[in-house]
Specification:
The complex is a heterotetramer, with 2 copies of chain A and 2 copies of chain B.
Chain A (H helix, E strand, L loop, with lengths): L4 E9 L4 H14 L3 E7 L8 E9 L10 E6 L2 H7 L3 E10 L13 E5 L1 H9 L5 H12 L4 H12 L4 H18 L19 E5 H11 L4 E4 L6 H10 L6 E4 L3 H13 L4 E5 L1 H6 L1 H10 L3 E7 L16 H6 L8 E3 L4 H18 L2 E7 H4 L2 E5 L48 E3 L13 H18 L7 E4 L3 E5 L4 H13 L5 E4 L2 E3 L6 H6 L2 E6 L5 H9 L6 E4 L8 H11 L1
Parallel strand pairs in A: 1-4, 4-5, 5-6, 8-9, 8-10, 10-11, 11-13, 12-13, 17-18, 17-20, 20-21
Antiparallel strand pairs in A: 1-3, 2-3, 7-14, 12-19, 16-18
Helix pairs in contact in A: 1-4, 1-5, 3-4, 3-6, 4-6, 5-6, 7-8, 7-13, 16-19
Chain B lengths: L23 H15 L6 E5 L14 E4 L5 H11 L4 E7 H5 L3 H10 L3 E7 L34 H8 L3 E6 L3 H13 L4 E6 L11 H7 E3 L8 H9 L4 E8 L5 H4 L27
Parallel strand pairs in B: 1-2, 1-3, 3-4, 4-6, 5-6, 7-8
Antiparallel strand pairs in B: 5-8
Helix pairs in contact in B: 1-6, 4-5
The chains are: A alpha/beta, B alpha/beta.
The structure holds thiamine diphosphate (2 copies), iron/sulfur cluster (2 copies) and magnesium ion (MG) (2 copies).
Chain lengths: 572, 285, 285, 572
């Protein structure tokens, strides 16, 4: 029996509103005190093609949907074809009886046909509103609070004008009316949770934008690309109010070079991109490392290679983040596991970039980038900003400033244009302490070593591996696989199998904090959303073991807990 | 034209390593003179360059400097100017930097109209990489990568910038650093994007476009009204004889002025930037 | 203008997945009609695109096709044309593809003058990525990335191409596929680089530049002499009303003709290419 | 006692002709039957700054200069300061007595001051000609053949016009005359070798250009960059005669996309670049992999990061070659060890690219790229061209061609535009067998697997590791370190230490052919020209051992045998 924990999937054609309904449901759930995790699936085109949105609500904090769904709201035949199998026994299939006729041989589910489209057209004259109507039956099935739902609809649509708001409210009422005869799902004992405004509903891109704003980032230059565009979009709205700049550049190359310029001028700056754009930024990221300019780079990973499947997820840019770019140059690569962590990591990324003076790359994947989760309001008081060795006043009257002074920790004082007596040259050529171009052997060696010392120095600031659970069987993973792994671990626990989950959060410099545990484990499963085992290959550099058991997925879809559970069960 | 006597010494930095006779010496001199005339504060000035012989100029000019990567100086400069509009931002570099790998940035910089002057040191050749054809080399030009002569029409940089929306276009000659000084002074003073295309002979690799060649193929613009857009197109369309001077000038709002922000954040107040984001929470309820 | 009846069916391929009403349908239709009029052999034609809604056009047009990466279609197309000048090479794609990330390639393609026609499907918006500002969006244009209005002067694509040396410049409108057909026919027939800028409304994201808007802001060029360069600059400099038709046309040697080689190597003779290099040994003695 | 094996270093200011003299000496040596290895060192500027050129001649095939030089020809004071220590006892220091006055406390060397500049100015009026003059003293010291030297001067300068030729010949005569009083070096028993025209003198870039021509490459698009430009330069001269195209593109991005276009149209094509340009090509190389187009990419590595030291050497792009670019995509990475091998590898690179239909990256470093070596004339008869599954005639009349047919080995038939009934779409989006864009799970999985199967299939065509020597102590290296390692091994052998050298020639897919030997060795030294141990990290993925002993150098200069010898001696 599931208690206050259920997954609903809403499916239809792209552009026909299923996503909006999913949004409403998610917002309702947050208001009712639920944690929410979502998973969108839609094609890389603007209209048409199958779209679906899965929303899970739960009392406990979650980062993944279930394998099985408890209700399937199917607005087209594709939804049925693709998702019926997912529907748990005891669950409900809701279909639009004005569009589809169904004959099914499953009698373990509730089948509910309601004439959404017909009603929407006849009563309101707007077909798309059928989506909101369908919230009525969900209210009934999961015993949701109609008052709170109306409030949610109200708050969501009031900005869009009286008519739209009223149509939606009316549609919901009609939906409730249509569902009157139906009974709730047996499997659920849905208590309304406590109304709770200490939680927020947001996607990873928004959490990152907020993290950046909180950290005082006042400059973003980016070029639109799925699934990273939201970051530029969000900051375009809010940075100007803070005296900042959000600018859509003519290309990713221009974007990253602009951001380097802004950083050089003393303003915290970032770029946000995905695979193809990340490739294009490679040369400039190397420049930032060489001239020692702080820079935060978001790469929201999508399914590659090349254009690949732009609206699908993958974890296949680990290699490029860690190893990309010619020459040897220090950089930092972080990878958060959920929306909430994306906020904190982004905030810290700016501190890290300022402290070690170089590029910090944040890797997310689509599951985090643009799927909403409910997060706890951020612990803003705990956040401390540090700008490292930024120097804004110089007493010495030397004609030139030692911008690249050789120091014990490798980190030099950094000044910015406008500072009296801080004058120096920054250059991507090898240089001496003042930034003069040089090719002298001893200076070259010292500078290379200095730059690499910085990385040692900041290891303490970076994110250690997170260890969950106990046991001699270990799962290693990064990023969004966290959600499904945690679910799988619970499933395994029920079977008596205890697992330990090691989630690596800093990929570069690799913190060897969990290597001992990996080496001494009985079995080590490596879960990753790619075909070639990029994470596994990184682990192999540091571990003694070679016998990792891969759990990989590269179809562009996120893991389900069952993918992991099954593989583990096969072996153990 | 009367030569103004100015003391350029305060702008001296390292000694140039350019080949003796290189046009870039003339550009450096003119830039120093212009800086002296304008009394540029070295601590509030940034000279941004790409990669090339010409792009080494900020090793030799006393101001803040950033020597970036090939073709990207324009973008870095825009980032600097947007971040701190109080800085005097000047870009300098080669024809390859500006009109080959950097074309895209030049075009978009021109349409944005930031208050930045861009000095192109155009020697119609790739100097630092040892004499390959450049986008401004003339058709038929023989170089190590065009042993049978270039088969491409050259890029007309100033014309391109004009078409892209630049609000100041000028052409100068490194062989006449005194006139060039005036052009650079005007370019820096211009509120908005200023493209200053300077013929700057490469004495080592380009044996065609020499000082003499330029003297023969250029003329000084007289009585030209830089406000006349049509005339500007006409002058720039001439591919035989090149007019020197200010070809086009029009005041328009700058990028910095057009940005939606009220006042730029102050980079000298680095810890005040941390911000409570609670007022934005509304979006997520 | 008389509508020529042509059978376009042989150029049908997949059904477009564009939004109903998208201007790109009109462009596709015009392209198919033009192909039929010119009797293009699908097996000897390559339609090269970048990335964007518009760039999906080669999924819907029956010929060889290569759907490359964002902004690079022009370069890939030049490689194809140089490798096999017998092919009919056509590029198509969006305003972002051509005038933002691809600016550099467009400019240099124009000056090289390969015999390639480039159809820009300009909707003044980024369609596929869901409605961000485009380099051709007008100043003040409100989009998700310019919530307070665009603060950049738009790129004037055809003007830029003209300044870069393009030998054929035309402007069309997807709302009038019949006239557009003629333009495309002429563009493809033109020996040299042809830029065809087509206003192609995005009905989903751009609620300003609609079919009606274009009808109000365009006019058909009458009695215009496309050989008149000055006039071409004048027409293109008008940023209020946009002339439709062939704006500029001039025959010049194409890139393929100007290459130093006598005759292109034959790609259909793949094993004959292996070559003894002993005659080159002299260089190494 | 060295027999027919000596190294001369010529040093001066950049642009003043030392390189030309080195060229002459190298050409002479080749004619006299010597093998030659050279090592240039010059700054990234056009005039001025210290330049030097080391030339070694030997009876046996060599790929490296000595640690110690036998003669130092110093045209400026820097040469003396920087290189005197290198001068072997018994060797000769030759300086320009019209410029420099010398007081030295070394009496183990011959010191010869001759008034080159003065003589050049007074007798010929051209200072730069002093270089050719200096060949006189070298002739004397190493007992070279003046007739053959004159012939060499003649052949070298005759194209430059009567005056230049005669001046140089005269200068040489004066040099001989000046040196009349001097005696030869004791250490050498220089027999003139047999005049031999079965050898060629060339740099790696030339060998690569020749390899490409031999393989039928008829298209290069490139953007100038040190040290790769020579490849475009050479092919600009010779491709048009073959109906090909060499085009200097407006950028590296344009270059690589043009080359992809040419390859798509059926012409073998390549690009040649170095670090910064290699970064810029990242996205398009991913496209080539995804659309399965053959493409050969040369990355001539130089000292990074960023602009770094453009005229200095390094092996620091291994990471980017192997791991660069977003997404998972098959590619091949080869790395030749010397000039001669560069030719053969390039030839095969085109075959490999055609066979597996994707990008093949060749990594060289400056030591190979632009330092000349004497190679044996190529075994052209042994070279076989294969174009893989290129299909130029199709019998079936299907409307569309299955360009991406799922096959057992993953490789599909490839046709090109112009082929009747071969019509298809190529796209960097995920696609079905015809190239139609799709996001269907099963097709996606099949396509990913198909692309990776190709890599398995072609492993047999790739270059296995080369094993030299025997013993339980192993050195692993790649590329140009081959030369110094071989020399070091000989030095160690004299000390009774036998070493085995494993030279990896295919970095991706990694051929595990030598892993067993690495795992079972007593000590494994990894020699590489970079700071971070890029090769070592690759090895660690496949080997069990973690205790590699690094021998690294990152000052932009190539290894000397002694660097390796010393480190090995420290440990053994
Ligand atoms: C991405 C990249 N590509 C190529 C180069 C090599 N490179 C250095 S300078 C230069 C061009 C030099 O020509 P120009 O810009 O005209 O400057 P000049 O040396 O003539 O002043 C090139 C191609 C590089 N440093 N980076
Ligand atoms: C290198 C790279 N950057 C960004 C993107 C994302 N992207 C895809 S299409 C597109 C622009 C679409 O606008 P446009 O070219 O005008 O075509 P439209 O969709 O409007 O037809 C962008 C930015 C990408 N695919 N590759
Ligand atoms: S090579 Fe040419 S551009 Fe470079 S410094 Fe010498 S003369 Fe000037
Ligand atoms: S989003 Fe716009 S450009 Fe794209 S298909 Fe729809 S209407 Fe056309
Ligand atoms: Mg130049
Ligand atoms: Mg568009």
């Amino acid at each position: 029996m599931k208690i206050n924990d259920f997954t609903v999937r809403i499916g239809g054609q792209a552009g026909d509103g299923s996503l909006a309904t999913g949004e409403l449901l998610s917002r309702y759930l947050r208001r009712d005190g639920y944690y929410v995790a979502t998973d969108k699936d839609f094609p890389s085109r603007i209209r048409g093609g199958h779209t679906s949105y899965a929303i899970r609500g739960s009392e406990k904090k979650i980062y993944s949907i279930h394998d099985k769904i408890d209700a399937l709201l199917a607005f087209d035949d594709d939804s049925l074809k693709l998702h019926l199998e997912e529907l748990d026994s005891g669950g409900a299939l809701i279909y639009d009886s004005s569009k589809t006729r169904i004959t099914l041989d499953r009698n373990d589910i509730k089948i509910i046909g309601l004439p959404f489209t017909l009603k929407a057209k006849t009563e309101l004259g707007i077909e798309i509103i059928k989506n909101t109507m369908a919230l009525g039956i969900l209210t009934k099935l999961f015993n949701l609070d109609p008052g709170l739902m109306k409030e949610t609809i109200n708050d969501t649509y009031k900005k869009r004008g009286e008519k739209i708001l009223n149509d939606n409210l009316k549609a919901y009422e009609i939906g409730l009316e249509l569902s009157k005869e139906e009974t709730g799902l047996q499997n659920y004992s849905v208590n309304r949770l406590k109304r709770d405004d200490n939680k927020l509903l947001m996607m990873g891109n928004e959490a990152i934008a907020l993290g950046a704003m909180a950290a005082g980032c006042r400059f973003i230059s980016a070029y639109p690309i799925t699934p990273a565009s939201d970051v530029l979009e969000f900051l375009s709205k809010y940075l100007p109010g803070e005296g900042g700049v959000a600018i859509q550049a003519e290309s990713e190359i221009s974007a990253v070079n602009m951001a380097i310029g802004a950083s050089y001028a003393g303003i915290r700056s970032m770029v946000a991109t995905s695979g193809p754009g990340f490739d294009l930024k490679t040369e400039a990221i190397g420049l930032a490392s060489m001239i020692e300019q702080p820079l935060v780079v978001l790469d929201a990973m999508r399914a590659g290679p090349s254009t690949g499947m732009p609206t699908k997820t993958e974890q296949s840019d680990l290699n490029h983040a860690v190893y990309g770019g010619h020459g040897d140059k220090p950089k930092v690569v972080l990878i958060p596991g959920n929306v909430e962590e994306s906020f904190y990591m982004t905030f810290e990324a700016f501190n890290i970039a300022d402290e070690f003076q170089g590029p910090v790359i944040i890797l997310t994947d689509e599951l985090i980038s643009w799927n909403k989760q409910v997060v706890d309001k951020f612990r803003l008081d705990s956040l401390k900003l540090s700008r490292g060795k930024l120097i804004l006043k110089i007493d010495s009257k030397d004609r030139e400033f030692r911008r690249y002074e050789i120091t014990d920790d490798g980190i030099s004082g950094r000044t910015i244009p406008g500072v009296l007596n801080g004058l120096h040259l920054e250059t991507g050529d090898e240089h001496d302490e003042f930034g003069h171009i040089t090719e002298k052997i001893d200076i070259r060696n010292k500078m290379m070593e200095k730059r690499y010392r910085k990385i040692e120095k900041i290891k303490g600031m970076l994110f250690p591996s997170e260890i969950l659970g106990e046991g001699e069987n270990v799962i290693v993973g990064v990023g969004s696989t966290m959600g499904p792994v945690i679910e799988a671990m619970e499933m395994l626990k029920k079977d008596g199998i205890e697992m330990k989950f090691i989630r690596i959060r800093t990929l570069l410099p690799f913190l060897e904090d969990s290597i001992g545990q990996i080496d001494s484990a009985r079995n080590v499963f490596v879960v990753e959303n790619n075909i070639s085992g990029q994470l596994e290959n990184i682990l192999k550099i540091y571990t003694k073991r070679k016998d990792f058991i891969p759990i990989r997925k590269y179809d562009g879809r996120s893991f389900r807990p069952g993918n992991i559970y099954n593989k583990v069960k096969e072996v153990l | 034209m009367v030569e103004i006597k100015v003391d350029t010494k305060i702008y001296d930095k390292e000694n140039p390593t350019w080949c003796p006779g290189c046009g870039d010496y003339g550009v450096l001199l003119a830039l120093k003179r212009a800086a002296a005339i304008l009394k540029l504060d070295p601590f509030k000035t940034v000279l941004v360059t790409g990669i090339g012989c010409s792009s080494k100029i900020n090793s030799y000019f006393y101001s803040y400097g950033i020597h970036t990567i090939h073709g990207r100086a324009a973008s870095v400069a825009q980032g600097i100017k947007l971040a701190n509009p109080d800085l005097e931002v000047i870009v300098a570099g080669g024809d390859g930097d500006a009109f080959a790998i950097g074309t895209e940035h030049l075009v978009h910089m021109a349409r944005r109209n930031p208050d930045i002057a861009y000095i192109v040191m155009d020697n119609q050749i790739y100097g630092l990489t040892k004499g390959q054809v450049s986008p401004t080399s003339e058709e038929g030009f023989v170089s190590i990568t065009t042993p049978y002569g270039s088969f491409e029409k050259p890029v007309n940089g100033p014309l391109l910038a004009l078409a892209a929306g630049a609000t100041f276009i000028a052409r100068g000659f490194a062989g006449d650093p005194i006139s060039l000084t005036d052009i650079i002074v005007e370019g820096i003073k211009h509120r908005g994007f200023a493209l200053i295309d300077v013929f700057s002979p490469c004495v080592t690799w380009n044996k065609i476009n020499t000082y003499d060649w330029y003297k023969q193929h250029t003329y000084r613009l007289e009585n030209h009204d830089p406000g006349d857009l049509k005339k500007a197109y006409e002058i720039l369309s001439d591919e035989e004889r090149f007019g020197l001077g200010i070809i086009y000038r029009k005041e328009k709002h700058t990028l910095e002025e057009k940005l939606p922000r009220k006042k730029a954040v102050n980079p000298f107040d680095p810890l005040q930037i941390q911000k409570s984001i609670t007022e934005l929470y509304e979006e997520f309820l």
